[in-house]
Every structure is written in C-alpha cells, then in structure tokens.
Design goal:
With 442 residues, the protein is mainly beta. It contains five helices and 28 strands. Strands 1, 2, 3, 4 and 5 form a five-stranded antiparallel β-sheet that branches. Strands 14, 15, 16, 17 and 18 form a five-stranded antiparallel β-sheet that branches. Strands 19-20-21-22-28 form a five-stranded antiparallel β-sheet. The longest helix is centred in the first third of the chain and has 15 residues.
Length: 442
C-alpha cells in the first residue's frame, strides 16, 4: 500500500528487533488504521486500485493539503467495474484522530489519465484538474472546485492537450485547452477559459485556430515573449515532400486568445521548418522563449549536411527577432552559441565512433570547405579523463551524469582566421544539453 512507507516512518520502526517481531506487522497510528480499514472496505466491495496513468501524481493513494489548513487530505483512486461510471476518486479528511470520507467523484471511461492540483483562483483551496480516458482515442478534461471539500464540476470538455497558465496577468490560473474542431475534420482549436468571479467558475472566453490537426500535436508549453508577456507555444508535426517539418504556433491573450504567428494568407503558422526534434526554449538565458529555425550548412560530395539554428523570439504583436545562432549536437548532447560574425563563414563535419566522437568546424572558402578551425570531442570511455587532455586538448565540460567529458582542440591556423574569437569566449558559449524529464499532465 502507498501509505506503508509513511506509516513506517511515523511509527518510528527500527531494524533491531527479535525474530518474532520481524514477522509482526507494525502497529499503525490510529488515524491510518481507520483509513486503511475504509480502503479495505472499498476493495472488498469489488473495487480495485486505478491510479492515474501519467503526470506528476501517480500513486493510488495520495496525500495533499487541498484546503490550505496545513493538514493533508487523502485521495484514493479506484475502479468499480460493475458500475455505470466505474472510475472513482475518494476524498478523506482528517477529523480529530482519524480520516473520514467526505466526498467522491465518479467518472466514465477506461482509466484516470491524470490529476493535477492547482489553486487556480487564488483562494487558498486547490482545484482538481482531472483527465479521464474515455476511450483509446478520446480524453475528457474536467475541473472541480472544492466547496468544503465537496467537488463541484465547473468545466468539462474533450481535449488533446491543456495548460493551466496565467495569460492575463491577474495572478490567477486560466485554462488553455487544445481540441478537435466541431465537425471540422483535421482542425485543431485552442479554447481559453477564464475565471468569472461572479459565477465562481471557469467560462469559455475565446478560441484560436491551431495550424495542425490534433493527431499532429507534439508538445505544448508555457513560455515568455520578448516583450515579457506569457504565451503558450504549441508544436506540431507535418510533412512536405516526405520531409518531417515542425510547425510552431504562439498563443497570446490580447483582447481575445490569438495565434500571433498565424498567416492571414495561408491560415497556418509562418513558423514551419525542418524538424530536428527541438522544442522552443530560452536558449540564451535572457528570459524570452525562442523558436529554432534550422538552415543546412554547406557540405561536399553528397555528405549529409549539418545544421545551424537561428533562434527567434516574438513580441506580443507578432514581430520576430533573430536572437542567437547555435550549433546543436543532439546525439552527443551539447550545443555552442556561435559568435555572430561566424555566420556564413564556417561549416561542420562529424566523425568518430564508439567512445571518441569528434565535431570539427571548418572555414568556408566561398562554398567550399577550407581549413580546419577547431574540434569538439565527446569522450565516454573509461579513460575519458586521460583522452580529454591528450594531444593539445582542453576540457570544456563534464556531463552532470559523469558519463562523458567534452574537450576541445584548436588547429594551428585558427588564430589567423578573420573571424576567430578568444578561446575563452568559446568555452563560455559551450553548453551541455540537460534532459529535462517532464511528467506532463496531458
């Protein structure tokens, strides 16, 4: 049972014990004995635990302070297959020295996809954002306001992705929901729900169009515009002449929810580029979210080209600004923010296998590959520390997981290259790509 580790800690169990004691169950604090009995009773009625399938809240029994009084409530997730609405969320409140069931939520479908707890309206009480898997293809989103821990449903809608985000700057969270268009094949819409203080409810405020169909949505994230406003970035996938392309939409609240990169001529985003499996991010650390725009670097002899990336940010009126240029080596998990003067004067080749892999930067002579400038090594062997300092190499970074060392060596002619910068400058611009595992509520 999920509560057992907590119970063991609370009961002060120690390893030192007699042989007989080792076979005896620890005595639970009284409030957990009462809770355990109630959970066992639900199971005895034919129910089974049915924890959320994804997101940041996965256990079948969860402890959360829902009403902000400093005392945790308990939520338990079950499936009662014999009932018309088989999915159950039970809420238990601490009353004196025991937990008492105060409410439950019934849901239809095959599973509870996810649950998120968020104080959306700033009143100190968490709302419950529950995703129900209705079928393999359909998910439904429901938001419940708790009134003395009694859940009152204020939103229900089919959805593909969602974000709880403060777009209007009032310090309350609103809801942006992606869903299929009503009766329109291949259309994806973004609905914006805002709080109505008089109604104490989330009401549909406005809707914006997304460039790709629901099936093509790849990601949805909250970011920041160059002018400081909060925005929602939606990435999707499409194809042009069998080449995978990434489509990015940017949703901003002005008078209504607007897709500020949607072209009035084509009806789709202007941000459609070769897919390199990169998401919008604040690549230069200035607080604004940038979109990657790839361009192939010159190659010779039918070689597969490497790619440079121009990172663009946006203002609230859709004005685009080119921020920085990078070279990203996704396989070896590093990137270099390139000096602006390098653009148009370099290219890259990758080589090596196994524990020593090399990325070499070359000067361009017209469109031809010229002399070698520098090489970045990714070293993963057991002798990586030795390899990193041999033959004139210098260590750039060590990966936080300690399984790789990055080193650099400079060619003899680097200093004479017209666009050369100090070696220390390049070291400062070198970054390790950190894999940020998102629990994702969608």
């Amino acid at each position: 049972m999920f509560l057992l580790p907590l119970v063991l800690a609370l009961s002060g169990c120690r390893i030192s014990a007699s042989a007989e004691d080792l076979y005896a169950l620890p005595r639970l604090p009284e409030e957990y004995e009462a809770l355990s009995a109630q959970l066992s009773e639900i199971l005895a009625s034919g129910a089974e635990y049915a924890p959320p399938q994804t997101g940041g809240n996965l256990p079948p029994v969860q402890m959360v302070d829902l009403d902000g009084d400093g005392v945790d409530e308990v939520l338990a997730f079950f499936r009662q297959s014999s009932e018309e609405r088989p999915l159950k969320i039970y809420i238990f409140r601490a009353v004196e020295d025991q937990y008492v069931q105060t409410a439950h939520i019934d849901g239809s479908g095959t599973s509870i996809h996810s649950i998120r707890y968020a104080d959306m309206d700033g009143d100190g009480v968490q709302e419950l954002i529950v995703s129900w898997s209705v079928s393999a293809e359909i998910q439904a989103l429901a938001v419940y306001v708790l009134e003395d821990l009694e859940p009152v449903q204020v939103v229900t809608t089919p959805y593909a992705r969602y974000e709880a985000v403060d777009l209007d700057g009032d310090d309350d969270l609103e809801l942006v929901v992606l869903r299929s268009g009503d009766g329109e094949t291949g259309v994806c819409l973004a609905d914006y729900y805002d709080w109505d203080a008089d109604e104490s409810a989330l009401l549909l405020h406005s809707t914006a169009r997304i460039s790709v169909a629901v099936a093509g949505i790849q990601g949805m994230q909250v970011g920041t515009l160059q002018t400081g406003e909060t925005a929602v970035f939606v990435t999707g996938r499409t194809a042009q002449e069998e080449i995978a392309m990434t489509v990015t939409d940017v949703l901003v609240l002005r008078q209504e929810l607007e897709n500020i990169v949607l072209s009035s001529d084509t009806g789709v985003s202007t941000q459609i580029f070769r897919s390199l499996n990169l998401q919008p991010t604040d690549v230069d650390g200035d607080g604004a979210t940038e979109i990657p725009v790839p361009a192939a670097l010159p190659a010779e002899g039918g070689e597969e080209p490497c790619w440079k990336l121009s990172w663009h940010s946006f203002t609230a009126d859709g004005e685009e600004k080119n921020k920085v240029i990078t070279y990203h080596n996704l396989t070896e998990r590093w990137y270099l923010i390139l000096p602006e003067a390098w653009d148009g004067h370099f290219t890259v080749r990758q080589s090596g296998t196994g524990s020593v892999r090399a990325t070499t930067f070359y000067a361009l002579r017209g469109q031809s590959v010229g002399e070698e400038l520098l090489t970045v090594y990714t070293l993963t062997g057991t002798d990586r520390e030795v390899q990193a300092v041999k033959s004139g190499r210098a260590i750039l970074r060590r990966r936080s997981s300690a399984d790789a060392v990055y080193a650099v060596s400079f060619a003899e002619g680097y200093e004479q290259w017209p666009w050369a910068v100090e070696r220390e400058v390049l070291a400062e611009r070198f970054n390790v790509i950190v894999n940020r595992w998102s629990m994702g509520e969608n």
